[in-house]
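Complex record, two chains
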Amino acid sequence: MNDDLISAQKAEILLIEQKAEQFVVSEKMFPKGGTVIVGVSGGADSTALLHFLKNHAEKWNLSLIAAHVNHGLRGESADHDEAFVKECCQKWAIPCRVLHEDVAALSKKRKEGLEACGRYVRYTFFKALAKENGAVAIATAHTASDQAETVLMHLCRGAGAKGLSGISPVHEGIVRPLLCLTRKEIEVYCNGYHLSYCEDETNWDLDFSRNKIRRQVIPVLKTLNPKVETAVSGAAFRLREDDNCLFEMAKSALEQAAHGLGWETSSLMKQPRPVRLRALFLAAKKNGAGELSADHLLNLDLLLLQGGKITLTLGLHAEVQQGILFFGDPKKQRFAIPLSFPETILPDGRRLLVRKISQKELKNDSKFHNLFFFNLLNYATISKNTVVRTQLEGDRFRPAGRGISKPLRRMMNEAHIPPYLRENSILLEREGEILWAEGLGASESARPGVDRQNAMIIIKENGL
Amino acid sequence: MNDDLISAQKAEILLIEQKAEQFVVSEKMFPKGGTVIVGVSGGADSTALLHFLKNHAEKWNLSLIAAHVNHGLRGESADHDEAFVKECCQKWAIPCRVLHEDVAALSKKRKEGLEACGRYVRYTFFKALAKENGAVAIATAHTASDQAETVLMHLCRGAGAKGLSGISPVHEGIVRPLLCLTRKEIEVYCNGYHLSYCEDETNWDLDFSRNKIRRQVIPVLKTLNPKVETAVSGAAFRLREDDNCLFEMAKSALEQAAHGLGWETSSLMKQPRPVRLRALFLAAKKNGAGELSADHLLNLDLLLLQGGKITLTLGLHAEVQQGILFFGDPKKQRFAIPLSFPETILPDGRRLLVRKISQKELKNDSKFHNLFFFNLLNYATISKNTVVRTQLEGDRFRPAGRGISKPLRRMMNEAHIPPYLRENSILLEREGEILWAEGLGASESARPGVDRQNAMIIIKENGL
């Protein structure tokens, strides 16, 4: 063999390793070391990953646990992969944990595709192992080639910056040390270190879209740019940074606009649209909307300008009233539950505290006057059989000291309680009578006084 | 023919037209109307564009001029296209201007590809026509299909948000009203209106990369998402907004960091990286760097942190000294030109003004003391044969009133003039003697005084 050839190959492998090392360091994958769960299928990518981490374990203070899932999908071939992974781990003195799961059966039960179900099984297993072993990270063997495929798949679906930024190098405890290397580079690495690996047949079967991209699109793009995978990964990296930056700004914008359970539209509208749309995305998500589509976000944006109400998803609407954007689900928010002492957790996430209050406190502590006025009532009236509930059509209320009885809705109007607060507001009812209403205070019959034992109602928001 | 079919087709065409109308309005393509130059090849896209604009000319207060370029590349076929466009314009009463250009010959002369040369010829022609007719816009027939191809080409090359945002709907006087429609939708439009058009053969010949994307990549992606062109266009639109937003922030960041001809690194480093990299891009561009690559920008970013000097392009380096980033080209900035009165335009873009100053002004106006001190000299010494030049190795200077002569470089050191200002600093020389140096003032022999006529030197920056 030619000596130059050998050293050229060595130099190439060295460069590949350095690239991955720098990537791990710059992405702060293992800042303090610790136990790492390494997902290993036995294919070239994950075998290279395990070998790479083993070689760096001492330097980075890592202790590794390999995790292999036998999906039971490919009979003998799957068993061969499992044996291969076990053997590899034994050779390298790395503990190996294996899960057997009948993914075909489970996917039918879960009513999802084999690929999605397989992913669910793997990550559930990895996360359980991570918890069990107090791991600092789960490492998976995604490559720049996977990244390029993912970006193209998302582009094809019309994603924005978020989707186009593809697979995260570091996200929620999962790290991808090889995301900077192409599949080709990993093959060079494996060959250089004489690593054997299994042909990962599943790659060629299960994910229809990904395989089309891999087998029919990438090869054409490679004729235009042989380094297309690295190029697309680079684009994804830059888009991720852009997107994160704009999301950070959106978070600040949301904090600035916060107003009770809602957000001031005038404040949101001052933001440039990319920031505003992300703020709306986050606001909707906080209210349980899941990941909204671009169209939904544009509709929400229009709502800021025009006011009114739109339905986002089943049971969730967005509404602008009196310059405040808020989200609501009338069905979900209607509830009636027994009052418990000293704390009742409300279905909307708030906590209602009931505290007995002494006559001394009541007399002396004038600084809480306003809070006292609206939140104080006769303890004896609420001590049993009391229900906490949201308003109902036809509720009537007889406020303390006014000698009248009116529909609750009208009283709230007169008290200028904004509609978006009314929807969440609660009341205490006992034997058909409203004893206290949020924002209005005690009723005539639950009227507090210096001559009796009183209770103080305190409502704590859930931080929304 | 079935009536339902007809009305379904009508509804489809109406929707297509509405989409383009809304796009033109929301992108503010013709806010005040006026003359529009419409590039027409005779193909489906540009024929549809001309027809669409003709139908909206009254509503949007447009007067149209069609512009056709016969590239002389396809013999009879090209002549047929030209005849077709002329006929079309005659039928629709639209003035038509035709340019004949031997693009094959010109491309050899300009040493560029046929496609690039053809583009150069077309846009030069359109712009000349626009100028000649006081046009408000040039309209071209780019479609969502072109957009998807462009985005994929840029992605393949590893572009960031800027490249991935593809073709601009509105940019530097060029508007693309059909950028929201796919080629398929335009065919439906043409068929619906019974428009005939030429097969645009050039599309299938010249641009190698684009045609690979069009013929080999898009068809595969369409099997994953039949609306892939619209999806990719949507992604491009959102990325454009993100990118513009971040560039606006970068502009502000640059303004905040401005310090003389350079920028404070401490101020730039406070910015999030996506903003900072764009600020560096703009700063380098202002200094004539052209469009820097992602790698160049990362190097520039590292320079902020580490200090030192890097070469960006031939004859342009970036340097950090004393916490200031600046760009320079030592070769370009060395000059020696005759001083002219009252103004000399310097090769670096600054303007040097010489103004006689009365004894009265000199005596009374103490508020300009500092300016006077450094920028005042004896008018008689500079009135003829004076040269304005940058420093040379070995320059010596004898400052007024100090009775010494020193190397200019050392004097500047002692005066704490930062190196990045020195490089641009100028001096006045007459018959081998330095009479005045920027930042140091007059020499002994050009020393100003109340007993003689003095001149004031004022230097105006070029706004960099």
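Note: The longest strand of chain A covers residues 62-70.
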